[in-house]
Amino acid sequence: MNFLQSHWILTILIALPLVGALLAYLSGEKNARMTALVVGIAEFALAVLLYVGFDPAAKCGTSVVARNLYGGSQGMTQQQVPMSNCADVAWFADWGIHYRIGMDGISLFMVVLTALLLPLMVLGSWTYIRDRQRGFYASLLALTSGVVGVFVSLDMFLFYVFWEMMLIPMYFMIGIWGGKERIYAAVKFFLYTAVGSLLMLVAILYMYWKLYTETGTLSFGYYDFLTVMFTPAQASVLFLAFALAFAIKVPVFPFHTWLPHAHVQAPTAGSVILAGVLLKMGTYGFIRFALPFFPDVAHSSKVVPAAMILGLMGIIYAALVAAVQPNAKKLVAYTSVAHLGFVILGIFALNLQGMQGALLVMISHGLSTPMLFFMLGMLYERRHSYEIADFGGLAASMPMFSSLLVFAAMASVGLPGTAGFVSEFLILLGTFRSEPFYALIAGTGVIFAAYYMLPMVQRMLFNREPSPENAHVPDLSARELVILLPLAALIILLGVYPKPVLERMEPAARATIEAANQSRIRIEPAYTPVAQHSESAD
Amino acid sequence: MLPSLFDSLGRPRVLDLALQTHYFWALLPEIVLSLGAMAVLLVDVFQKENRSEPSRPVIAWLSLVVLGLAAVANTALYGVTEASGRGLVAVDAFRMATNFIYLLAAALTLLLSIGYLDRRGINRGEFHVLVLFSTLGMMLMGGAQDLMMIFIGLEVMSVAIYVLVGFDRLDPRSSEGSLKYFLLGAFSSAFFLYGIALVWGSLGTTQIQQMLGSANSAGRVGPMLLAGMALVMIGFAFKVAAMPFHLWTPDAYDGAPTPITSLMSTGVKAAAFAAFIRVFMVGFGPTAEYEWRSALILMGGITMFGANLIALTQGSVKRMLAYSSIAHAGYLLVALAANNPRGVGAFLFYLLVYTLMTAGAFGLVIANSREDGQERLTLEDWSGFASQQPALAAMFSIFLLSLAGFPLTAGFLGKLYILRAAVEAGLPSVAAMLVIASLISYFYYLRLVVVMYMRPARDAEEHSGAGLPTATFTAVAIAAVLVVGLFFLGGVRNGPLAAAQRSACSIFDTGPGGRSYAECPVAAPATTQQTAAARP
Fold this sequence. Notes:
- The complex is a heterodimer of chains A (538) and B (536).
- By secondary structure, chain A is mainly α.
- In chain A, 72% of the residues lie in helices and 3% in strands.
- Chain A contains 23 helices and 2 strands.
- In chain A, helix 3 (105-124) runs parallel beside helix 15 (352-383), helix 11 (268-293) packs antiparallel against helix 15 (352-383) and helix 18 (419-434) packs parallel to helix 21 (478-496).
- Chain B has helices at 2-8, 22-26, 28-47, 57-74, 93-113, 116-120, 125-143, 147-165, 172-203, 208-218, 223-240, 249-255, 258-284, 289-312, 317-337, 341-367, 385-388, 390-404, 410-424, 428-454, 470-489, 496-505, 525-534, and strands at 14-15, 81-82.
- Chain B has a two-stranded parallel sheet with strand order 1-2.
- Chain A binds chain B through residues 69-71, 91-95, 97, 132, 160-161, 164-165, 168, 171-172, 175-176, 182-183, 186-187, 190-191, 194-195, 198-199, 201-202, 205-206, 208-209, and chain B through 387, 401, 406-408, 416, 419-420, 423-424, 428, 431-432, 435-436, 438-439, 442-443, 446-447, 450, 453-455, 490-493, 497-498, 501.
């Protein structure tokens, strides 16, 4: 087995930023950003290798764990699982906690996206972050490590640890290097996320215990959890616990209130990784965990409409709120809520088109929104403002910036030819097949996107006679072009030729849909002492 | 290596506490500790020519050596069992494990007090001796196998602690805390003693292992026994500072010299919990199980939520940590309510972690104090701490995150262990309660992190005086490393998690006639004999 198919490449992808964080911290104020950039480029190069070596049809077979420091010799996968680059090494062997990682088409693109954004974020913070630089780059790298870990964990304990691990660096990034109300935003972000994840922890423990009492297997393994059966009541409660954690992270409509604050206060790199990757952890959670674990609940006639309506509320409500924002960064933050409303819609369409569309939006939004945040950050470095009213006539002074901003806005709206169009089209298609009425309403969301995005672009770039400050704003530097052009290129590439992505994702999306179509409900007899007695007599 | 040393000294592998001489081996750590404490006292008296001058630093180091010797003596309990079932002290792995925790708590207390006592001008040899004697009381209380013995241990411990709380007698807060603690402590002792009387009246014995058999043969649980159990429980609840019996805690914790606050919230609590576990899980066991477990769940719920909510409103960091310590008593009560070996294992592991992180946190409180020993306790006193003292701030953050139960710290693992015990005992709703309560706690632990990292200092020199003596700093740093390291290495084969579970199983009767537990593998009697015979 060569390196590209082994788990080592994933392990290095997780460990490299963590080691990099330490190096960045030790290399001192001056050199921290250089170290971070080198680590970021190395991470991205590895991710490209991962992409090149990826085989969508790969399966992980029965792996026997070698006895290690932690003991244990129990293999993860007795059956063939549709994952590649797997590892299963005992960690807390007595508890059934292993270092289980693996990857499929869904994880692949999330990891690649994260690794792509990492060097760009370092470049984007190059001059933006001026004080306590080593702490900043160390946080950024540690955060990346946690995010990669979330996307490749196949052990629920490991997943939870990574899920929480990325919270602390993000909290510091907002709280230390953020704007005026940074502390409020940081605490709000932290508490919202923690609420959901702790309830998820109880749900995970309950499933762990149920697995143990039913099968005698002591394991936190993802594929072991997939074999647990529930009564309808248990499944509903557990699904809610998982769904709440993920819905807060996404964020789905009524839980979105932390997002605008966090985005506006966070430094550019913070907003970028938040919009680009962190929000996707929520939708990833729905796809990887909530749906396959509780297919019956996810299919039920109560949950599907509820989820879709919440998705639609997100699309329309966020669009309306975005349209009246005086603050450009807040406006872009609300577009995230709208786009992720589409993702929720696509996921709960529960068919292949919807799922693929959702996954594609996760990627395209991960390219276009970071691009917008980068550009707003660049503008902020020049003018120290995010207020739309402070700008106007930038098209004359910053032609390159303006054309790229128009492009990013179009990509965000989902103009044909950009990645956003293909993905939202697929979602609407999938939704139309299952719930035509909702698809009709969601279709208007695309118009709403133009409704809030275009006025912002117009007011910032064209509208007024250039005011004195805006007349002499320097245009983009080479460093800034290096950040923006790759994103723009990828947006166009995915818009006209999404096949390489879609074909790598398809088996994974199909497997998720299949898993979500099986029933995992068991009607248990009512618990009576008599019944128990007869069981033990057998 | 050490156990075989004791073998060669003639220690029997199986003690029979019907024989007086065997008590020498059963009580060896306590004997070493009390002799050592008296030796320290004598050294201090003879060393000082002028009584008003402070003690020499050697006293602190001597006391630490005594604790170390007691720890060595404690290993004499390794692998030893007791045959008669009638002893006044237990001889099992649980006792050995808890003894190590008391000794660790006392050692950390002494390390924190190096320098601190001088700054406050209360460096007297009695301080160290009293810490040693209170540790002796903890060991007697936690290791006792008889209600009367528990009471004696409790009093030995408490009297020493009453004095220690008021040790800075010129400080009115210290005296106030001491008096409050003494009055309420005397009350709780009376409750406890009356409870013992009622239990004795209805069961005819105060020996814990015999109580179970006596209750079984009595059949019905009478009102007198229930009343006795309730009073005993109240006595313990006072000592572990469970709500609503916590009213003395904030004042006593706040007024006491900070190292003593650390000792009270770690060692004292640990001893009271250990005795609690023995009396209720072993002594009463299935007797009125529903009632006492319900009471524990109720008390645990009130404690977790009440303490965390009150801690939110505290302006003083020391008081906040006092309430946080009450909240942790609530978490431990959940482990007790599980009433299974898993819960006891969770208790042991959590106690170890809790001791490290609480002592560490109080160490940081000491670090941020003025030259004259007055502590700087308001939240504002911590602003900008991280930029001026990055190492200390990082350690404090680790302790706070661990207290909050955040992943990558051992506090998370400990909480997970408790949650697992609760879920396995069929109490998933209690587990959910614990989770929600610790969510509340996130808020105040994080607030301190926020202040340290995100607020600017009032002036550039503000925290230049903060710091710890080298020995203390080393101890606190080791504690911080352990708190993180235990998360990654807790599951090592035969590591801390496994050891905690094994020690926990040792107090449960899993042999023939006892209940069987999945987490406690039953050793076949033949194998035990073989290994016993195989050893020289």
